[in-house]
Amino acid sequence: MEFGPVFIALGVLFLAGLAADALGRRTRVPGVTLLLVIGVLIGSSGLALLPEAAILWYEPLSIVALTMVAFLLGSSLRRDKVAAHGRAILTVSVAVVLATMVVVAAGLWLAGLPPELAILIGAVATATDPAATQETLREAGGEGDFADTLRGIVAIDDAWGMMVFALAVVAAQAVAIGDFDPGLLLVALWEVGGALVLGLVIGLPGAVLTGRLRPGEPTRIEALGLVFLTAGLALWLEVSFLLAGMAAGAVIANRAQHHERAFHEIEMVERPFLILFFLLAGASMQLDALSAVGWIGLGYVILRILGRVAGGWLGGLFGGLTRPERRWIGPALLPQAGVAVGMALVAAAEMPAVGDILLTLTIGTTVVFELIGPVVTLLAVRAVRKADGGA
């Protein structure tokens, strides 16, 4: 095997990440968006500069990067923060998922799509991209009530989305062929419930053992060990590694009162993984899918934005958010990526008759939301911060 091109590609990707970071500071464009754009330019939809082996790194790197992000998001669900923002996190997350599902599914059905396809697309629309949201918050210096609430919402809304998706697949099958399969519900319950149990199994001993050695390299190795162990066991057990990582992170954050070093170590090592993740995500995007989705894709984008805005406003109203927070919490949840594609793949396998259009739509519109989502999230954080500063 010729390793030269592989190492050259790695070096170029890391340097491109540094360039995107520097350009982002100068232009105020989110680094996530710049990394994705660079990825598109050097990927198969652009200049095709990356060796094929590099594209194959995307899946394993995405699992590691997203599990790290999941641990950090889970650590944001500490008792003190949940006590302060728990009502808002719960009401907004539920409202955004339900509003997105209803608005997208109903809108596409009224526009003429078959009801089973509209239901599936509505369920896929509920998924978010925790990595892009977390990275954008980090870049914005996201501290304060709004950022804490947003992290908490991102940490749990994909769990609600998975439950809604499981019910939607069953409903779509029943509508299409009149056949109800309770086995799909059991699979979904295992994916969600099994992930939470796995998070507890790893988190409880992890909370006791982590940080007992001296600070520095040992703690970093502990943190990496927990991340890789969680990801590997989740894949082996066929449960959600995102939810498992979030659950483990939440348990460790609440039970390990003697230190917080493990999460600081994850923050220190996650950056290289995220740079490669976003660059390769951009390189893997197929821009020609955008032209294939046509008016359905445009309708989906508009309806999903409306669902997010409406859900964020209603959830924020009942959750006690301020007016600027209610206005911006929904738009801040626009990023969408791998979880949505995963849902579409499952739905396509269960219902092959609508699989092609569902996958094409999801892949095509993911490009849109990955590019504009982080920009809107950054605008939301800055707008709320400005409003709070002016209060």
Helical coverage, percent range: over 70%
**How widely separated are the two ends?**
62 Å
Low-confidence stretches: none
Biggest sheet: strands, sense, closure?
none
Q: What is the number of helices? A: 16
Q: List how many beta strands DSSP finds.
A: 0
Helix and strand sequence: HHHHHHHHHHHHHHHH
Q: What number is the mean pLDDT?
A: 78
Taken as a percent bin, the fraction of beta residues is: under 5%
Shape: globular
* Secondary structure category: mainly alpha
Cα-atom Rg, whole angstroms? 20 Å
What does this structure look like?
This protein is an all-alpha fold and 391 residues long. The protein is 82% helix and 0% strand. It contains 16 helices and no strands. The chain has helices at 4-27, 31-42, 52-56, 58-75, 79-110, 115-124, 130-139, 145-177, 182-209, 217-237, 241-255, 261-284, 288-319, 323-329, 338-350, 355-390. It is globular, with a radius of gyration of 20 Å. The protein starts with a helix and ends with a helix. The model has no long low-confidence stretch (mean pLDDT 78).
